[in-house]
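This section describes the prediction task in plain terms. A model, or a person checking by hand, is given the sequence of a single protein chain and must write out its three-dimensional structure as a string of tokens. No templates, partner chains or ligands are provided. The sample shown here is typical of the held-out split.
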Amino acid sequence: MAQAKISAKACEGAQQQQQSGGQLRGRFYRSTSMADRSSRLLENLDQLELRVEAFRDAASAMEQEKEILLEMIHNIQNSQDMRQISEGEREELNLTANRLMGRTLTVEVSVETIRNAQQQESLLHATKMIDEIVNKLLDDLEDAKIRLMSLYGACTSDVPAGPIDQKFQSVVIGCAIEDQKKIKRRLETLLRNIENSEKSITLLEHQKSSVRQSCNSKQD
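The expected answer:
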């Protein structure tokens, strides 16, 4: 009788061990499966992050292309060549230029930059410093050019051709990386426009000088 009880207990213990082992194995297999799922999901998100960054880069490139197109159209409309053709031809070309500008403006591309409070404040400060110079552009073109070049020197890693604005540099460093790139592009555009204006003024002065010389020659 006692032997029978011992055998029964032994069988019961063995069954409990088997059940416990089965439960442990089940937990182990479930954990492995969850780890695999987590790994696959993380890999998918990593791939999506690359695509998101590529998408933002492509949109930023489109933003820049829009700015370039508008600048080129504007430069053609205000070029010296446009002033040296007949009024009828100029009117026709301006109609075409306005049509192209209108079509370009129908494309809306916007890439929002994520900023913290400090970066937002730095961006506003940098923008204000540039705007102050732009507002005085017509008063003194040469002085504005020198000041803008000092701001541009603060944004580039190349060796600047002249002095750099240390205060502006410290402000730009506090901006988000994307904003730093946009600030640099804006300064490049402003400097190009000033250079084009100077060329137009030089050509105009040369033409006036040529006319005066021609008139003097005829009088002689």
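For orientation: The radius of gyration is 35 Å.
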